[in-house]
Amino acid sequence: MALLERDAALRSAADYLTAAAKGNGRLVFVGGEAGVGKTSFVDRVVVDAGSAVRVANGACDGSTTPAPLGPLREMLPALPGGVWPEGADRADVFLRLSEALGRPGTTHLLVIEDAHWADDATLDLLRHLARRVHRLRALVVVTFRTEEAVGSHALRILFGDVAGASGVRRIDLSPLTPDGVRALVVEAVTPADGSPPEADALYRATGGNPFFVTEVLAAGAGSLPRSVREAVLSRMARLSDPAREVVDLVALAGPRCEVALVEELEPDLAGALDEALEHGVVLLTGNTVVFRHELARLTVLDEVPAIRRRSWHRRILAWLDAHGADPARMAHHAEAAGQDDAAREHALAAAERAASLGSHREAVEQYQRALRHSTDVPDPALADLHGHLAYELYVTGRITEAIESQQSALAVWTELGDTEGVGDAQRRMSRLTWFQGDNARAQEYAVLAYATLEGTGTTAEAMAASNRSQLAMLAYDLAATRTWVRRALGLVDGRDDVAAEEVRVHALNNLGTMEADSGDKEEGWRLLEESLRRSQAADLHEHAARAFTNMGAQAVNMHDHVRAGAHLSVGLRYCLDRDLDAWVLYMRGQLALGQLEQGNTAPAGAAADAVLRHPRTAKVSRIIPLMVLARARARSGSDDHAAALTEALDLAYGTGEAQRIGPVGSAAAEIAWVEGHPRAAERAALRAWAVVERVTSPWTRGQVATWLPDADARKVADSLAPPYRAEALRRWDEASELWDALGSRYAAALARARSGTREGLTEAAVLFDELGDDAAAARARTLARSQGWSAPRGRRATTKAHPLGLTRREAEVAGLLAEGLSNAAIAEQLVLSPRTVEHHVAAVMAKLDVGSRHSVRDALAGA
Fold first, then answer.
1. What would the 3-class secondary structure string for 292-338 be?
2. For 425-470, what is each residue's pLDDT tens digit?
3. Which of 158, 445, 459, 677 is least buried, going by the fewest C-beta atoms within 10 A?
4. How many CB atoms are located within 10 Å of the residue 98 CB?
């Protein structure tokens, strides 16, 4: 059949390939409903590319729990050598691939089909390529079903992650129009046993879906079948019995069936495979047999009798085992064959392999499969299995399920009377309940764990002590943090195994975070950096993620935006490459807060909203994004901030932690001020201060103390960070200058507004306008008018109407950035100070959601 109504999409693909040949690669998502012709479109792109382009094909498998990086494994024979050397970890493989695709002389066309079935590692590969493809000589084409990538689907989350990447594009393939269906009917060769159905009726029945249309036409029915299922089965009915039997075997084997499998399992039927190929029921691709569409395979699969299906799964499993196949594929066939021991064995191997590659969702599925087939395993093995599953659920953000699985492990260890197993499970329960925002239960489990393990001298006891130090750090208790860290480190002194090193990096992280915030700051940062270095050296992913997170969060809290951006951006890449979703979401919340503090209100609100929409955002990770969203909406004049603020307050006070209550209490006070309720602002501050006053952190104390009544604020001024101290003493000009020096533009404007002077309110209104904070600007004008002063004119309509939300000055800076000018050159041309230009550049990049200066041009071009 002809490839109809795809000319525009093919021209786009050709243009992208031309750009790729010049070193300006593209990653193109090709979407459409099942049967719309994505594979046919990609096949034409490959043909049109010609022999000068090096093509590599891979596909995601939807019939089983997918093997990590399955598509990349399929591509390896067509890729340059050395991409995946023996023993290389995933991050190294990704870097090797991008380096190979960037070499001059060869243009690559990489095709990854059915990404809606992609494993976590493959999704991370796409994230990696999306951030770099604009510098590579490669066109990466990724097909997916639009009806699958909806809601909380991992692929949809990926779309959001790479939306700002300059090299990412999307092509959506629509069903055929009535004219397109009519053209297919005209082209179809009328079979001897009847004429094709009438075109308009065929269009109405199929909705223009090319697969449905071609199946109906290929079935050769004189009248229109009632469904595509009937069309597929009608086509199958034209085959001989041996051919139908071999097609059944191919369907059972999976989306791709090796020819050798058919030849060895059913040598008498191998010849019948030619008949199925001749009729186009299946296709031959290299040494594998595939169906023209997965819908057809599933239709055939449903018709295979149950007993025959079970028998063939058993034979397929034996063949795969003899040929050293992927354990994930063998686990699927073992389960379908009803072989419990084999299913458990292969599932455990597949889970361990997936976890080592960072494909934690696949690890969850395989551990769950192993659990389904573990009715007769010894109790210790069952407890271990529950524990492994709980950990994988934890790192993928499925905290409620992780708690249930960890409780099952705890119950088994308790029944066995295994002290170390019980204590370690209790310690893990402490961590999980903290993620749920239940600090009281977290503390209870922490106390129980240490009591259970105390005196054993094991690394489990040491980790239980370090867990106590972590909770003390989270409560801003410097003395207790130091005490528990000394105890934990003493228990592993002189040991050099991995378990001991895990205790060390965990404890150093806890102490470093507390010292940096409330104790010896230089020593604190040194300890955090040591914890990070040792975590990375020992490949302790979770602990490296904690180090990046705590360093970034501390910097955000201190308004050290350069340090915060560096740690969070590098940490985010680290965690994305390793599927550490719990920390990815937490760090994105902190990045959103950092943007907000710098005055990038709209991008901050959008970033916070994206975290909140993620289906696996834990309660503790929702607090900061909720607070950011409420502040952003209130500042800009949106009236839908109340629900976000209420939830943030409920969650923050539910934890009892000052580091949650301080920011949210401050947000409630700020929002009350913007809305013109100064007494409500004081009440919100007094409520938060009842918790925050007990901590020594000068930044956490400061953000609340500044909203206290004048006399109360002055009393505690000496215990606050410099900008907050100036605010507490009501030295507003000094405070504004300090905030300006830190790059916290909204805080600088707010200090001017809170001065209540004519000059301060006038300057604040202008600054709020520049930031796009319409409600804050309106509040400043209202205060000015209440004193009988004239207020400056509001934000220009041209600024509000800018498609990317840039102010006039930001638009000028963006245009010069797009021309390649340096900050110094921009400052000279616009007659601005270099520091002012630096702030404008940061604002432009945040609003355009780009990670580099050279990406500004692409973002402006796409507006």
1. CCHHHHHHHHHHCCHHHHHHHHHHHHHHHHHCCCCHHHHHHHHHHHC
2. 999 999 999 999 899 999 999 999 999 999 999 999 999 999 999 9
3. 677
4. 20
The rounded distance, in Å, linking the Cα atoms of 686 and 708 is 6
- Alpha helix (H) residue ranges in 50-119: 70-75, 90-101
DSSP-assigned letter for residue 658:
H
Read off the DSSP letter of residue 226: S
Between 459-474 and 419-435, two packed helices, what is the crossing angle to 10 degrees? 20
Comparing C-alpha atoms, which of 429, 423, 433, 503 is closest to residue 469?
503
> Cα–Cα distance between 835 and 148 in angstroms, integer?
47
pLDDT tens digits for range 682-701: 999 999 999 999 999 999 99
Of 845, 851, 671, 638, the closest CA to residue 746 belongs to 671
Query: What are 159's two structure tokens?
Result: 């779309």
Closest C-alpha to 115, from 192, 212, 40, 31: 31
**Residue 193 confidence (pLDDT):** 46
Determine the Cα–Cα distance for residues 500 and 351; give it in Å rounded to an integer: 25
Both structure tokens of 789: 């002063």
**Are 365 and 388 a contacting pair, CB within 8 Å?**
no
Give the Cα separation of 750 and 176 in Å (integer). 56
Q: Are 37 and 299 in contact (CB under 8 A)?
A: no
Burial of 794 (0-12, 13-18, 19+ CB in 10 A): middle
Which residues, including other chains, have CB under 8 Å from residue 428's CB and lie 6 or more apart? 387, 390, 391, 406
- Phi, psi (deg, nearest 5) at residue 27: -115, 115
What is residue 136's three-state secondary structure?
coil
**Residue with structure tokens 């975290």?**
611
CA dihedral over 433, 439, 397, 482, signed as positive or negative: negative
H/E element, 47: helix 38-49
Give the pLDDT confidence score for residue 863 in this predicted structure: 55
CA distance 707 to 689: 10
Residue type at 147 in one-letter notation: E
The confidence score (pLDDT) of residue 65 equals 75
E strands, 211-316, in order: 257-258, 282-285, 288-291
707-744 residues labelled b (16+ CB within 10 A) or e (exposed): bbeeebbeebbebbbebbbbbbbbbbebbbebbbebbb
Look up residue 224 and give its two tokens.
């229109």
Task: Please give the DSSP secondary-structure letter assigned to residue 55.
Answer: E
C-alpha triplet 159, 160, 161: angle, nearest 5°:
90
Per-residue CA distances from 265 to 251, 283, 311, 660 (Å): 14, 19, 12, 62
List own/partner pairs for 448-451 with CB under 8 A and 24 or more apart.
Answer: 449/423, 449/424, 450/423
Both tokens of 156, joined, read 């949809």
Q: Which two tokens stand for residue 608?
A: 């916070």
Conformational region of residue 405, where left means phi above 0, alpha means psi within -120 to 50, and beta covers everything else: alpha
Q: Which residues of the chain have pLDDT under 70?
A: 1-2, 63, 189-197, 205, 220-227, 791-805, 807-808, 833, 835, 839, 846-847, 849-852, 854, 858, 861-863
CB 793 within 8 A of CB 762: no
pLDDT for the residue numbered 227 = 67
Residue 147's pLDDT is what? Answer: 78
Burial class (CB in 10 A: 0-12, 13-18, 19+), 287: exposed
Region label for 107, one of left (φ > 0), alpha (ψ between -120 and 50) or beta (otherwise): beta
Pairing mode of beta strands 257-258, 288-291 = antiparallel
Q: In the block, which residue shows the tokens 């004429």?
A: 195
